[in-house]
Backbone:
């Protein structure tokens, strides 16, 4: 099967430092691919290059066989690459529903003059956007908070709003940047379920995450980065046994929670639904 | 352009540039300490100029004393405004853009109070020392301009020494760079902010006397000069003290040379075009907001 | 009918009644000037309140619109509405000069627009063949509508009111559209908006374009209103005045912008009797109003009304989500 995302030789320098060094990555459609590694391994840099927020120093990125290495962020978004941010980036003073509606921006067309004339097409589109946004909110379980200002929500809910905003337009590829950061054990379990559910709805996912209790049950395949280089690639089971990976992590990079029992995927999915 | 003209223009540009530097310094210091774009900085210059002139009227004082009065006048009014207006607004956690508008309000008030006190006509200034041309290194130069450069250099030099070697100067720098850490280290950030306004006002007051001696003093001399100094500070990199000095000099030179070479009418436009180009090509100004030097 | 619609109709009725209550020609003249200010404030509100762009250049577009309408009217005897419309469009076209600088952020963008305003002002001062230079443009004809002269201050007031109402409706619809939503999102988090597919620079440019057209139309009205143009009517101080209107009235609210414009234009006139103190009082007012917080006078009034309603009906004041363009 041709990969949805195909990255090759991707490199990024920051001054003299090489944050990502000649990394290759292939993500099969319909899978959850994890990107893990110790702190400073270049995971977020990698994700930022795929989303377009960072330009690459060299290498190329293909999305559905099209070269997108130089494509701007907003165009990639319209192609169907959406993301969340490690440090929440919500439109804090807009309502939750409006936040999600902005997520539909790239997939809708009405211009200013449609709004000025209140054309039937504009009315229909606005109604469709709102409807779609409500569905997405319902999917992450926040429909009851739709009219709240986004900034007033508790941290865990804000994470969910970000995810809803990213998936509302049914993207082809969803980039999740540490979605479980700052969540407690129970919330993390729900997050795993949510990630699987999003995948099951037909969205391919690239997941950057520290927490092994999220990565292992959520991912179908995993790439391990260390010092900007690709260390290993494989299924969660292969990665867990990989000698190089074990060595890299013995240096102390894996964050485990006190109660780090591996939740079963099925159980987690149940918890989320 | 002959070499002689070039030297004259150069000196003229440096002189006016020094004046811009003095005001831009204050604007930059205030931005670094409080993030406030201080639109009333030009009014501090105007008040300094007026106070200096009044002192001269009362008693035929020598120029350095007039300058000192200007410095004190600018410093005092700046301190009062900070204590009465800006500190109150900061305490109420008013948004920055509102404080910026309040500085425009301060500017309106000071201008019109000055108009009440000193009238609306431009007021002649005593010339700075002797206005007869002197010959330096084979070039006839105006001592007026030369003195402006020398006095500005002295004032800015003193400021640098103050920031480097005095406890208060170092505390002010620390507070401007990282208020939270400074607080932890026992620095009273509110107080250093007030001192920042005081010092910024003193610089502007000095600039007012120097600018007045070059042209004249009037109630509305400050606003446009302040805007130009603000542009100069942006040129150098907003928030960088060294950048403000260099930005002021460059802006003065650009203005004077383009007035000479292109047209007097469009000399300000050239400065603005350069500003926009620099913002586009070097978004952080010539010197970035490192703030570690000076 | 919603509360906001009732409020709009009440305000409209009051504005229609204003020249009847105060028929003094001088005051009606000033009221028209206030309405022109309201249009300018709306244009600034689109930039600051919706898109989060602080523009210090609206005075320039105002001037371009004014000089264009005046010149067309003097030289080609163009009808009033057409001249104003072309003035607005030319101001809009000139906003395209800002396209290269829209990628600047925050205060850099503000300073760059200020630079633009200063350059435009210098052109008005110095290009005598185009603008009459520092002497200005005189003998701007009286406006005519569909061949009929717009006679007297009151008639002109109603023209200004109609234009201001039209601009209000336009901007209100923009605020509640996909475009407006994208602007608000952009003002709160540019990166996140971009990641949702908003082409930031394009949207900022469009925003400048629309705001410039509105400012230019206001300029055209001003040209017919004063029948004499001087470059100093359009100095950067004007740009700052326009920003001040929005901050005083309240960032993000169109009615707030209108209120701010009314204050900035009318208060100095009302205080005229206090002679030399009027601008000092005005300055003090600016400082005090700036201190009322981000929502400006509109916010204070809304809070007071809510408080009053709560007291009278003995029920808690309704809490709304963020106060934005309504």
Residues:
């Amino acid at each position: 099967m041709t990969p949805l995302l195909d990255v090759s030789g991707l490199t990024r320098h920051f001054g003299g430092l090489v944050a990502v060094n000649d990394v290759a990555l292939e993500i099969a459609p319909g899978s959850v691919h994890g990107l893990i590694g110790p702190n400073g391994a270049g995971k977020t840099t990698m994700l930022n290059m795929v989303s377009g927020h960072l330009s690459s120093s060299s290498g190329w990125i293909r999305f559905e066989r099209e070269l997108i290495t130089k494509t701007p962020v907003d165009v990639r978004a319209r192609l169907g690459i959406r993301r969340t941010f490690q440090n929440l980036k919500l439109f804090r003073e807009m309502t939750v529903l409006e936040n999600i509606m902005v997520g539909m921006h790239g997939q809708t067309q009405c211009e200013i003059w449609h709004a000025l004339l209140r054309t039937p097409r504009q009315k229909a589109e606005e109604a469709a956007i709102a409807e779609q946004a409500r569905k997405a909110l319902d999917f992450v379980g926040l429909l009851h908070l739709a009219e709240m200002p986004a900034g007033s929500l508790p941290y865990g809910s804000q994470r969910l709003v970000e995810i809803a905003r990213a998936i509302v337009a049914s993207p082809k590829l969803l980039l999740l940047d540490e979605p479980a950061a700052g969540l407690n054990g129970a919330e993390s379990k729900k997050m795993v379920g949510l990630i699987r559910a999003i995948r099951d709805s037909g969205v391919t996912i690239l997941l950057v995450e520290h927490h092994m209790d999220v990565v292992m049950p959520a991912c179908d395949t995993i790439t391990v980065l260390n010092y900007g280089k690709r260390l290993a690639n494989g299924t969660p089971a292969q990665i867990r046994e990989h000698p190089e990976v074990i060595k890299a992590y013995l240096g102390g990079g894996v964050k485990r929670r006190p109660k780090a029992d591996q939740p079963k995927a099925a159980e987690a999915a149940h918890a989320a639904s | 352009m002959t070499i002689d003209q070039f030297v004259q223009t150069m000196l003229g540009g440096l002189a006016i540039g020094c004046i811009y530097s003095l005001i831009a310094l204050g604007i930059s210091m205030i931005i670094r300490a409080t993030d406030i774009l201080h639109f009333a900085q030009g009014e501090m210059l105007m008040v300094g100029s007026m106070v200096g002139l009044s002192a001269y009227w009362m008693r035929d004082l020598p120029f350095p004393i007039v300058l000192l009065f200007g410095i004190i006048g600018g410093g005092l009014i700046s301190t009062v405004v900070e204590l009465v207006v800006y500190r109150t607004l900061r305490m109420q956690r008013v948004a920055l853009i509102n404080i910026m508008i309040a500085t425009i309000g301060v500017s309106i008030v000071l201008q019109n109070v000055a108009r009440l006190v000193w009238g609306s006509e431009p007021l002649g200034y005593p010339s700075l020392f002797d206005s007869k041309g002197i010959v330096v290194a084979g070039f006839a130069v105006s001592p007026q301009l030369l003195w402006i450069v020398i006095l500005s250099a002295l004032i800015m030099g003193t400021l640098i020494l103050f920031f480097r070697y005095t406890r208060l100067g170092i505390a002010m720098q620390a507070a401007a760079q990282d208020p939270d850490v400074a607080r932890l280290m026992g620095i009273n950030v509110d107080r250093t902010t007030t001192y920042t306004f005081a010092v910024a006002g003193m610089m502007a007051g000095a600039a007012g006397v120097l600018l007045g001696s070059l042209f004249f003093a009037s109630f509305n001399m400050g606003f446009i000069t302040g805007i130009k100094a603000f542009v100069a500070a942006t040129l150098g990199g907003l928030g960088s003290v060294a950048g403000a000095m260099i930005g002021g000099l460059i802006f003065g030179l650009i203005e004077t040379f383009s007035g000479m070479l292109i047209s007097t009418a469009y000399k300000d436009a050239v400065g603005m075009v350069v500003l926009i180009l620099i913002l586009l090509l070097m978004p952080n100004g010539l010197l970035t907001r490192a703030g570690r030097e000076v | 009918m919603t509360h906001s619609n009732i409020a709009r109709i009440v305000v409209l009725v009051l504005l229609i009644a204003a020249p009847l209550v105060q028929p003094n020609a001088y005051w009606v003249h000033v009221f028209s000037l206030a309405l022109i200010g309201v249009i300018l404030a709306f244009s600034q509100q689109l930039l600051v309140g919706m898109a989060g762009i602080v523009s210090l250049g609206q005075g320039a577009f105002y001037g371009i619109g004014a000089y264009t309408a005046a010149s067309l009217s003097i030289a080609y005897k163009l009808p009033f509405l057409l001249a104003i419309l072309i003035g607005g469009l030319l101001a809009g076209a000139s906003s395209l000069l800002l396209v290269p600088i829209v990628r600047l952020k925050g205060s850099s963008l503000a300073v760059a627009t200020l630079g633009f305003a200063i350059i435009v002002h210098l052109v008005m001062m110095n290009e005598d063949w185009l603008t009459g230079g520092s002497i200005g443009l005189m003998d701007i004809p009286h406006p005519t509508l569909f061949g009929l002269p717009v006679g007297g201050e009151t008639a002109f007031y109603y023209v200004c009111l109609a234009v201001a109402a039209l601009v209000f409706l336009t901007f209100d619809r923009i605020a509640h559209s996909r475009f407006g939503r994208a602007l608000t999102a952009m003002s709160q988090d540019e990166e996140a908006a971009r990641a949702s597919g908003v082409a930031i620079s394009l949207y900022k440019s469009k925003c400048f374009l629309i705001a410039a057209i509105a400012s230019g139309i206001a300029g055209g009205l001003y040209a017919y209103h004063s029948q004499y143009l001087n470059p100093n009517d359009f100095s950067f101080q004007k740009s700052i005045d326009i920003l001040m209107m929005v901050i005083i009235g309240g960032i993000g609210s169109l009615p707030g912008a209108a209120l701010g414009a009314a204050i900035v234009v009318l208060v100095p006139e009302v205080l005229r009797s206090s002679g030399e103190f009027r601008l000092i009082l005005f300055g003090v007012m600016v400082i005090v109003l700036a201190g009322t917080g981000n929502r400006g006078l509109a916010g204070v009034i809304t809070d007071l009304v809510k408080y009053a309603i709560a007291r009278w009906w003995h029920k808690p004041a309704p809490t709304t989500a963020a106060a934005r363009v309504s």
